[in-house]
Amino acid sequence: MTSAAGRSVHTERSDHPVTPVVRAAAAWSWRLLVIAAAAYVAIEILVRLGVVVVAIAIALVFTALLLPAVDFLDRYGAVRGGAVAFVLLLGMAVLAGVMAFVVNQFIAGAPQLADEVTRSIESTRDWLINGPANLSGDQLNRAGDTVIESIRDHQAQLTTGALSTAGTIAEILTGALLCLFTVIFFLLGGRNIWSFVTRVVPAAQRARVREAGAAGFHSLAGYARATSLVALVDAVAIGSGLAIMGIPLALPLASLIFLGAFVPVVGALVTGLLAVLVALLAKGFVFAAITLGLIVAVMQLEAHVLQPLVMGRAVSLHPLAVVLGITAGSVLAGIVGALLAVPAIAFFNSFVRVLAADDPDARGEALENDDGPLVDADADTPD
């Protein structure tokens, strides 16, 4: 019997010449390779359908902002289609008014800014000639001629870039129209659309998937509303400081800061640097330094007060996840990717948490205080 046991151990060792660690590593490796291949294929599909994907993502964000108003009118007896039309027209009128205001303010303030820039250029020229640099007028003229010659040499590249920009504008218009139609149908029957989509899920898991979708959309709505409030505070604070200092184009710059603040952490800072540049050209280094200090102070207020107070209850994301998400989004899809990265993380964070929860009560916590989600966990068939 002992010899038989010895032969059994010997046979087992000969059948498995590799160690358990190597076998486990091999098993993990091929599974990870399959997952990576599937992720690569999914990303390629998303890239090729970029216009459609981006339009749907932006439509979801706008739906999260507008749906409470539509549901409010619906609850008080308004026809659903009429409520959607009213809210959309009101929203587009507000957006058009803001854009018209920004453009008019830029046009009105451009002459003053041009005069300030001209004076700054002249003073810089005098400093370069009469100051420590002690340059001659001929040297400055040759430097200007070099810049002009460089522009002429790269005229073909500039023309190609203009044509590419025209194509991009056409693509943006197509995406905007698709986004508008998607918002309309989401507001009209988004719950039924989600119910229909989730019918492909096995019946045993269908309710959980619908609850996860409701939780994800609830987080997205909270993020959209909180971000709007934070962006408004940033714009008012920085715009007021620019107006007090007499910086040209204070109101248009505040409007740009409002739009940029929808990209967390870096958006308001990047658009605020434009205000620093305008202050530098118009008022000099002292006012530019004060403007930079104002922007940094507002960013600190946002990071330590506004974000935890306003957004903490609706969306709980680690700052590292936000920064990594924005970076990855900008690498994959540029400005649009940076804009949509954090909303996507907020949605999938709640979606996955509810989907993976074992306790139904824990899943239901994410649905509390939901004021009209796009999805309906109890619906089973489309209207």
UniProtKB/TrEMBL annotation:
<comment type="similarity">
    <text>Belongs to the autoinducer-2 exporter (AI-2E) (TC 2.A.86) family.</text>
</comment>
<feature type="transmembrane region" description="Helical">
    <location>
        <begin position="168"/>
        <end position="189"/>
    </location>
</feature>
<feature type="transmembrane region" description="Helical">
    <location>
        <begin position="49"/>
        <end position="70"/>
    </location>
</feature>
<feature type="transmembrane region" description="Helical">
    <location>
        <begin position="21"/>
        <end position="43"/>
    </location>
</feature>
<feature type="transmembrane region" description="Helical">
    <location>
        <begin position="284"/>
        <end position="301"/>
    </location>
</feature>
<keyword id="KW-0472">Membrane</keyword>
<feature type="transmembrane region" description="Helical">
    <location>
        <begin position="321"/>
        <end position="348"/>
    </location>
</feature>
<dbReference type="InterPro" id="IPR002549">
    <property type="entry name" value="AI-2E-like"/>
</dbReference>
<dbReference type="GO" id="GO:0055085">
    <property type="term" value="P:transmembrane transport"/>
</dbReference>
<dbReference type="GO" id="GO:0005886">
    <property type="term" value="C:plasma membrane"/>
</dbReference>
<feature type="transmembrane region" description="Helical">
    <location>
        <begin position="82"/>
        <end position="103"/>
    </location>
</feature>
<feature type="transmembrane region" description="Helical">
    <location>
        <begin position="257"/>
        <end position="277"/>
    </location>
</feature>
<keyword id="KW-1003">Cell membrane</keyword>
<keyword id="KW-1133">Transmembrane helix</keyword>
<protein>
    <submittedName>
        <fullName>AI-2E family transporter</fullName>
    </submittedName>
</protein>
<keyword id="KW-0813">Transport</keyword>
<keyword id="KW-0812">Transmembrane</keyword>
<feature type="transmembrane region" description="Helical">
    <location>
        <begin position="229"/>
        <end position="251"/>
    </location>
</feature>
<feature type="region of interest" description="Disordered">
    <location>
        <begin position="364"/>
        <end position="383"/>
    </location>
</feature>
<feature type="compositionally biased region" description="Acidic residues">
    <location>
        <begin position="367"/>
        <end position="383"/>
    </location>
</feature>
<dbReference type="Pfam" id="PF01594">
    <property type="entry name" value="AI-2E_transport"/>
</dbReference>
